Please model this.
Amino acid sequence: MKANIAIIGTGGTIAGRGESSVNTSAYACSVVSVDEILSGIPELASLANLQAEQLLQMGSENFATEHLLLLGSRISRLLQQDHVDGVVVTHGTDTIDETAYFLHLTLKSMKPVVVVGSMRPPSALSPDGPLNLYNAILVASSPASRGKGTLVVSNDEIHTARDVVKTSTFKLESFRSPYGPLGYVVEGMPRYYREPARSHTLETPWSIEEIDRLPEVGIVYAHGGIDAGMVDAVTNARMSGIVYAATGNGNVAEHVVGALLRARREGLHVVRASRTGSGVVIRNGAQPDDKYDWLVVDDQAPQKARILLMLALTREARSAELQRMFHRY
Ligand code: DAS
Model:
């Protein structure tokens, strides 16, 4: 029996259209409707019973917290319907890793949720969207995908939302997880080789149904010669937290320490992360976090640490508990 899969369109390159088939960078993003995308791939009909809806139509660089909340609530309502076996979201690739992680932490269901995009628009020679979407529907339809949280399917790979990040501006293999994908889609079959190790969906304290707003958290990207005023700008904007995407293993330039200490005094939580793209930031390693009452990110990318801190702050203000969350999710 075919699975019933709900498809939610939100825009992105997978919904783009270009003037020329040989130009894969200059095109209009988010102009093709999800119904048009589906009708352009007749092979999808044999995979599952599909119901599609257009929730948003925008490049994912424009996603704000209100869009995360809207998308999460809609998916949650669909997952509560008995006849829906899984949900696929078509999404721009720029912030797909942030949206997927948000859903991974806030949806309360064993049913598969797959977020999918493409690096090339459908109008390009060798577009990747059609096969990515085909594979996403296969993954969402597979009983093997249940209980794995939110997944990102791209370039024949199945990634856990926790780990995946976009790593290239144009390559089809842009989506990488530091520990590798959970599995592959090979010849129309999802094949899993690993399980997500960190808690998600049913094992987190956050339910999308209970969140109506998220606190603001800013990211400051460190570099040689950084002006400490970058940190002050986040503090002065009265945000609730700062993720400091530090150099190396979470080093903070001497002249920036004071600005981060001031941020903490003013009530913002300070999280040391790394701009390197992989590895762990060790608590009390490069900086005395206990003394300063700062947090460390564990191994998470700065943009996903921001999502986690926003969620964490909806339930918790104690530093020790916040730190525990970074080591758990
Ligand atoms: N416009 C970007 C986005 O929506 C690009 C993309 O989808 O790949 O994220």
Residues 216-328 form a domain with the Rossmann fold fold (CATH 3.40.50.40). The radius of gyration is 20 Å.
